[in-house]
Amino acid sequence: MSMNMIYKLFFVTLFLNFAGCSSGKIIPTTDVCTIKKHWKDNVFQVLINEKPINTRWYIHQEAKDITSMLADDNKCMPYLPAGS
Questions:
Q1: Is the full-model pTM beyond 0.70?
Q2: In 3D, which of 81, 30, 38 has the Cα closest to residue 63?
Q3: From the CB of residue 27, how many other CB atoms can be counted at a distance below 10 Å?
Q4: What would the pLDDT profile of 42-56 be if each residue is shown by its tens digit?
Q5: Cα 28 to the chain's mean position, in Å?
Q6: Phi–psi pair at 13, nearest 5 degrees
Q7: In DSSP terms, which residues pair with 32 in a beta bridge?
Q8: Nearest-angstrom CA–CA distance, 3 and 54
Q9: Residues ≥6 apart with Cβ < 8 Å to 64
Q10: What would you report as the CA-atom Rg of the chain, rounded to the nearest whole angstrom?
Q11: In this predicted structure, what is the pLDDT of residue 2?
């Protein structure tokens, strides 16, 4: 194997390592998180795009925390009503 071929292989390998390790651009989600109050009790459900994430109901602080965690994981954007 010639020295020229070794250099080419080295640079191709180096390029592939850089290309493979680069991180992609993070695209923010357009899904929206909301909190819905139970019609009778003082418990809340977390929704993404008006669909419940599960069947559980939470106290308000827990629902806010879950919404915040989902936003941190880029699963949804928290809904902010006008004037907030």
A1: no
A2: 38
A3: 7
A4: 999 999 999 999 999
A5: 8
A6: -65, -45
A7: 77
A8: 62
A9: 35
A10: 24
A11: 67
